[in-house]
Design brief:
442 residues; 8-stranded antiparallel sheet; 12 helices
């Protein structure tokens, strides 16, 4: 389960676009922040997550947030400012489960590596969809988790929602603000549609006559309802009402729960939470990474990434394109099990200390968390007011990462005794996380 939104210049009230996404996956599925430079390729083929496809001569520089084990990515941006996030959507189109297709994450990374604009990215994804399909498992340990995908695709000028069902698709151009979750949203108001989408739906008996409604024809009602997508999309669509949508606005949405802060505890979480905390079979997904991108027309892109789970307990760090970035100097690719050397697992230890005593953990970190986050945002604003060069931005990124990492270590030390003093108790939740921790030796 995931949530993605985008605010265009008419919503941000400045010459920039702000994109935000939470990646909700299995709780032990660590997410990596990675950078791949622009590369020339001599190889004829490329191995994606499950299949080989033809390689192109050149791929563009990308910054990605991705499941550590997968070739593709949940969200990312390239050197041209093309930014994409994807969502699992549940449709009536059945899977063969041959695992001979591309994952939605593969499609996302391929489009970023090969596209200079949002329109090129949309064409790239739909052509790959036609050629290779998406009959690919999207789960980590859940090898029966197959789904179709929707995307928000943006560049410096425009943004699109692209929704798919099997090899069919529909797309809508956004003018002000938009958000997607784990259900189809485009009905009759599409701008582009695949050649066979209407005929295929008619052949299956999902559409008879009148104005064609993609969502009505293709959506799987039960699975879409079970995902809680409508409630979460209603939450993220509140950004449409914010005057002057900002990075702070995006952080608030991505960190939000269905209960007020004063009443929220993780074992009461459910699929209505944008910042998702796993509670078991009915709510298996967990927010394992989060990204915000500010895309400017004539200035560098700022990529704000947590590199950690649970945005409500995290700091968004700024990253920039270029050779000297902090991503070249630190090991951001976590392992399958607990690893003290990586940001994701060190942070995960802290977050899990607060599973049974969330209010106490919030009391330990919230003042520092808010202070540092505001300082990073303010420093970034001041830098861009003076047209900074690449070296200044890279130094700012490095310093911000080091400061937040130091705070993370300090919070871990202060919170070490929390696990033995629970403030809330739910036996099912306790044994769920005890089992999850044992699997990764945490």
């Amino acid at each position: 389960m995931c949530d993605t939104f985008i605010a265009l210049p008419s919503a941000t009230k400045k010459d920039s676009i702000i994109f935000g996404k939470n990646s909700d996956r299995e709780p032990n599925e660590a997410q990596a922040i990675v950078r791949f430079p622009r590369l020339k390729h001599n190889e004829k083929t490329l191995r994606c997550t499950y299949i080989d496809i033809p390689q192109v001569e050149e791929t563009f520089e990308v910054i990605l947030s991705k499941p550590f084990w997968m070739w593709g990515a949940e969200m990312g941006v390239n050197e041209y400012g093309v930014t994409i996030g994807n969502e699992a959507v549940f449709t009536k189109v059945k899977f063969q489960k041959t695992i001979k297709g591309l994952t939605g994450m593969d499609l996302l990374r391929l489009a970023l590596e090969r596209s200079k604009s949002a329109n090129e990215a949309l064409i790239c994804i739909t052509e790959l969809l036609k050629s290779f399909g998406q009959d690919a498992c999207g789960g980590y340990q859940n090898r029966d988790f197959f789904y179709h995908n929707s995307f928000i695709i943006s560049d410096k000028e425009e943004a699109w929602i692209l929704e798919t069902a099997g090899n069919e698709w529909v797309a809508k151009n956004l003018k002000h603000y938009g958000s997607i979750s784990n259900g189809l949203t485009i009905g009759e108001d599409y701008d582009l549609i695949s050649e066979n989408a209407i005929d295929f739906a008619k052949e299956k008996g999902w559409y008879k006559s009148g104005n064609f409604n993609f969502m009505k024809a293709y959506s799987h009602p039960l699975m879409s309802w079970a995902s809680g997508c409508k409630v979460r999309q209603n939450t993220t669509m509140q950004g449409d009402k914010i005057e002057g949508f900002s990075v702070k606005s995006a952080i608030e949405l991505l960190s939000s729960h269905h209960l007020p802060d004063t009443k929220f505890v993780p074992h009461k979480a459910n699929t209505n939470d944008v910042c998702m905390h796993s509670t078991g079979k009915l709510n298996p997904s967990h927010t394992v990474g989060s990204m915000i991108v500010e895309i400017r027309k004539n200035k560098p892109v700022t990529v704000w990434l947590t590199g950690t789970s649970n945005p409500c307990l995290s700091i968004y760090k700024p990253f920039f394109f270029g050779e000297n970035g902090v991503l070249n100097e630190t090991n951001q690719v976590p392992n399958v099990k607990f690893d003290r050397k990586t940001l994701w697992w060190i942070s995960e230890r802290l977050h899990r200390l607060g599973n049974l005593n969330y209010p106490n953990l919030k009391n330990i970190i919230s003042e520092d968390q808010q202070k540092l986050q505001n300082e990073f945002i303010e420093e970034e604003r001041k830098l861009f007011a003076n047209n900074p060069d690449e070296n200044i931005l890279q130094e700012f990124s490095k310093n911000s990462f080091q400061i937040s990492f130091k705070a993370l270590i300090d919070w871990n030390n202060k919170a070490s005794k929390l696990a033995w003093r629970p403030t809330s108790w739910n036996p099912f939740y306790y044994f769920l996380w005890r089992g999850l921790n044992a699997k990764v030796e945490l």
